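Appendix C. Worked example: Ferroxidase
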Amino acid sequence: MLRTFKFCTEFTTTQFLKLSNLQLSSLNDKIENFENVETSFSDGVLNVHLPNGKSFVINRQTPNKQLWYSSPISGPQRFNYVNGKWVNSKQEEIEKQLLNEINLLIQ
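Step 2, the predicted output written as structure tokens:
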């Protein structure tokens, strides 16, 4: 089991890869529940394609120990691992933001 870190600089590259892969894999699994939304997940990059042609890209940035997020709604963002969660500068969690934005676009 991985321990909780206060901030992403406190863990090694190996720990970052485990944590980021867990998050990306979890996002991929949750998105697969949406009808007509396609995903591809490979080498630390999660692509999400919506039926209306819009797409999201979430990828890990190992040197920075961050997840980078590109959205047709909110644009580019960076997420850090803080207190056991991947959050942006507004303290919004990546999972909640992605699922909310997908819901907005497929309604």
